[in-house]
Amino acid sequence: MISEAEFEALISLLDDPDREVHRHVFNKLTSLGSPVLPRLYEAWEKNRIAGLQNKLEEIIHDIQLNDTLKEFESWTQEEHPDILEGLLIISKMKYPGYNEHFINNELNRIRRAVWLAMGQYVSSIEQINIFNHVFFRDLGFRSEDSALSDPRSYFMSRVIEQRKGNPISIAILYQSIALSLRIPVYGIELPSVYCLAYLKSEKDEAQFKAGVPGSDVIFYINPMNNGLIFSREEIRKYLQSIETEALPGYFSPVSPLQSMALLLSTLQKVYLKKGLEKKAEELARFTRYLG
Question: Sheet holding 185-190: strands in order across?
Answer without folding.
Answer: 185-190, 193-199, 217-222, 228-230
